[in-house]
Every structure is written in C-alpha cells, then in structure tokens.
C-alpha cells in the first residue's frame, strides 16, 4: 500500500475523505446501540446477561479481526479493503434492521464488527504514509475529530431515536448512509496494489483468535458471571496460553502476521503502555457515570446522553488543536497537562453524593474529557512516529488490539470493584440500621441502604480509576519526542550466508 500512496506527490485527500466518512459511520455505530439495550430486552424477550452479547460479541470480533489487519494492509489495496469493510458493515446493518429474533440480531452485529474492525487501522495507516512526521500531528488531529466526534453524538442521537421510534430505526438510519459511502468509494477509489508475495499463517490466525478472543470474552464476562466462574477464569487461562504461543510463533517467523519486534522501539512501547492504562481509566467515566445517573439519580436515557455530550464534543473539537500543538512542541507536555487534569477530575468523581447537581456532573465530565483530549492521540502518534514505515501496519494493528483488550480488562475490573464494594457497604449499612432501629428495616429503608451502598461502590471504583490515571501521568514524564528509526530491511538467513561466503572467498 505504501507504494501506491507514495506515488502521489501530495497527500491523497480524496482517498482520506472517503475513508474518514466510512470510519465516521462505523465509529458512530459503536455507541448507538448502548442506550437501546433495555428496549431490545423487552422487544425480543431476553435477559440483561444475554443482550450484553450485542456489545461483547462486537468487541470479540474486533479483537479477533484487528490483529489480521497488518497482514491485510500489506497484501491488499486501500480500495479493495475499504469496499470489503464497508460491504460487510452495510450488510450487517441491513440484516440488523430487519431482525426479529435475538440470534439474527447478534449475527448481524458480528458481521458489522468484521467490517468496522478493518476501518480504523486502514485509515490510520494511510494517514501515516501520506504525511511527513512534522505534519503528522495535525493530520492525526483531524482523524481524532472523526474518531471522537462520532461517539460524541452517538448516545444523544440514540436516546432521541429510541424515545420517538422503534430501536430498529437506529439501523434504518445508518443503512442509506453506509450504502452511499460504499458507492462513493467504488467510483472514487482507484489505487492499485502491486502483487505482494505474502501468505497468511492460518495457525497464527487461530492462536491470535483464541488468545485475544479468550481474554476479551473472559474479562467481559467477569462483571456478570463473577471471577470464580469456570467460564471466566477458564477462557482467560486459555487466552493467555494461546497468546503466549502466538507471540513466540511470531518472534520466530521471518514475516510474522503481527510483528512484536516493534516493542524494541522505546517510545512506541511507552506509548502503548500509557494508552492501555488511560483506556482503563477512561472506561470508568463511560461505564460508571451512566449507572450513577440512571440507576441512582433516575435521570432519563436522553438526559444522560445529553450530559455526556458537551465533554465528548469538546474532546472532538480539541483534537485538531492538540494535533497542531503536538507538531510544534511534541507529545510530552500535552500528555502531562492532560493527565494532571484527568487525574484530578477522576478523583473528584470519587466524591459523588446522592444529590450531586446535574450541572456539576456536566462541568466535571466536560473538564475531564478536555484533559483526555490532550492524551490519547498525541501519545499514540508519538509512538508510531518512531517506527520505520514498513512497521506502520503492525503498529496501528497492535495499538487498536491492545486498546480493545485493555478496555475489556478495565471494564471488568471496575465492575468487579463496584459490585464487591457495593455488597460490602450494603452489609455494613444494614448492620448499622439493625443496631439503631427497632425491628427489621422497612422496605423504604432497605432501598435507601441499597442506593447508598451502590453510590459508595461507584465512588470506590472511580478512586481505582484515579490510580490508573496517576500511573499514566508518572509514565508521561518519560516521553521524548520520537524520531523515525531507519528503515533497514532485514536480510534473510540464506542471503546472509551467501554474502558471508562471498566475502570469505574473496
């Protein structure tokens, strides 16, 4: 792919525009369904533990597909990959819109996910090979606008549609846009790919799928099934064994499916760790805040979505600005300032009460998202900047995979802390109430105890998320402005031996 892009004297803005529109639609779809889950439960008569598979299944397919994108990007043209990705996404969206049973809807979501998983690494790779290092921050900032803008409007748009129409309208709304983008790509994308002699190692694909899939499934299920469930710890153990086997196999191969050698570049390795830790911290706001406002405060789904909107919009708008600052000053100062803001605001979220005002929540969340906007894209871009060009597909695939896994781990960990601490506080408050009151606590008193216990459980989970943010802040002090490493092509063993023999003979 690099060859096809580099032939163009200036960045291929037409290709980038088409890719960004396609990426926007797929990213939007990721957050559209969350608020509609209760309506789907009622309409299709399924339990909460079943309906969450619409989210978990989507994440699983992403976790399985994304590691293969490094191979796909090297093997096929932008045009072919884009049309395949958008074709799968559009097909899944159409099927979901007419689904009248849960299994059909779940299959449709997984088809959507298989297309969506290709879009982000594809777009990021085109961005990296299209812009020089000194202009890459601004370019990735525009990419961040797309990446964060779609999830920003997702919950609010979803809340409005679900309140006024059937949940299937979420898919009917996206279908014509997806088809239009597919047709635009068909007529506008013309890039060719020179034939590349590279084959997919099927055993590596199997190990990768079982490894990443097992970890994602295990950690995603821990919140509902508990850590002592064989289904949880069994799949995590299988996932770890498969993942270790996958990594060892990749290290030994001359042309690995996913090259773990990129971790020898210190700035990439550091950026990868920071991104994973901050992703775990970020999920605290996305997960715990909606539970607090809807379950404890009784705020409607639409108002809950509106509460998150200013922060998400500010995060999206800040992305191009932080991109330009990154080009001028580097990622270290941005990451430190952003993580200080993120750490402080996450700590204040651990001080929620039963009557914290709606305005206070909006302001605190907006400031927190402002801090986050200075971290994710600059840190990730700084790490990718150190890689030689031929490693870009592996770097983008690795970043997206580790963020999926860390997101699942962070979600499971925080849900477990919230649940365990809620049970502990409920027992403590009930014992105190029994001691102070005459007779058994009334139903109203039991409900009050349950609410207070959940509130304290959420606060404790936010406190742990604060520690995650603090760890990321400490790591940010070690960031240095990355310079691209020399792109030295490794010589295969037979060629090395031949060259050595020539030197000896002479």
From TrEMBL:
It is found in: Cell membrane. Residues 15-484 form the Major facilitator superfamily (MFS) profile domain. Gene3D superfamilies: MFS general substrate transporter like domains, Multidrug resistance protein D. CDD domains: MFS_LmrB_MDR_like (cd17503). The chain crosses the membrane at residues 12-33, 53-73, 85-107, 113-131, 138-157, 169-188, 200-219, 231-248, 268-293, 299-317, 329-349, 461-479. It comes from the Bacteria. InterPro entries: EmrB-like, MFS, MFS_dom, MFS_trans_sf. The keyword Transmembrane applies. Pfam families: MFS_1. PROSITE patterns: MFS. Keywords: Cell membrane, Membrane, Transmembrane, Transmembrane helix, Transport. It is a multi-pass membrane protein. Belongs to the major facilitator superfamily. EmrB family. This is DHA2 family efflux MFS transporter permease subunit. It comes from Metabacillus rhizolycopersici. The lineage of its organism: Bacteria, Bacillati, Bacillota, Bacilli, Bacillales.
